[in-house]
Input
Amino acid sequence: MSNVHLRKLCITRGSNAVIRDLDLQVEPGEFLVLLGPSGCGKSTLLHSIAGLIDLADGSIEIGGVDMSHADPSERGIGMVFQSYALYPTMTVEKNMSFGLRISGAPKAEIQRRVQRTAEMLQLEALLDRKPAQLSGGQRQRVAIGRALVREAGVYLFDEPLSNLDAKLRAELRRELKLLHQALGSTMIYVTHDQAEAMTLATRIVVMQGGHIQQIGTPSEVYERPANRFVAGFLGSPSMNFVDGQLDTGHRFSAGALALELPLNHAAAGGAVTLAMRPEDIHITDDGQLEASVTLVEPMGNHQVVWLDCGGHGLSAIVHDPRPLAPGQAVRFTVDAARVSLFDPASGKRL
Output
């Protein structure tokens, strides 16, 4: 396993700066997930680590060695792309061993690596098949196996599960996590899927507009988002945001929505944006706040209930099977200890 250290990284496309002055330290054995919307620069950053994109400035160290201008083959990385990119005329075994054969590795070593990787990915029975005879999930396993046989110091994954259906994504996500636990390798993974990020990552790097918005463990990023963008990007449904006033007694008010907040949320009054996770809004008969139901979304083991509280639209997650219908009046409470406050102007956490 190797560490990866990016210093003052700058990447341009024409006259446009895609990434500017980016610093990032990836620890050995870490599963780091780059998360963000399409166009935020996460794949560009990954490709620069792989050596597929030239740097305008800055440096990339892999395993303590400056690889800023090294060829991809010299960087000691294995990469898995969004598309399987398998050779259709080759068997699974030939696809997985292709890079090793080209590099002149001994036949016995190639066989050992392919067999070991096939066992880890449950591909032993498929080694003689060609890609056309495989399912989408099996093809992606082969693509992952092709990277793993390199026994690289760092593995890079560029949205490898995005072409799969929801059930296969969940299965391969679990297998990737188990694979990381077994190998202990350094892995950097790009996705726009927050479920993948939350379940796979040791740490999450949330990106927007070519800049890092927050770095932290999944729980840190979810529970204490650094700004309004991070708060709104993570969670399904996303956080509820309400603009209002906070008085010096730490009482938040926005029309019909009024809430006493714990003292550690802010020291002074003024305009603030209150953010509440849907799971922290509880519909209960003895709630202090009133709302009307506008929509109910049954989700199997829970319901997503949309509320109108004095013109403020809120979403709540309800786990009990109580019957709720549009137009119904309800009462609710908010877990005030779990809310976040943001500056309305800058979007930064208060």
User: Anything to note?
Assistant: The chain is about 25% helix and 35% strand. The longest strand covers residues 16-26.
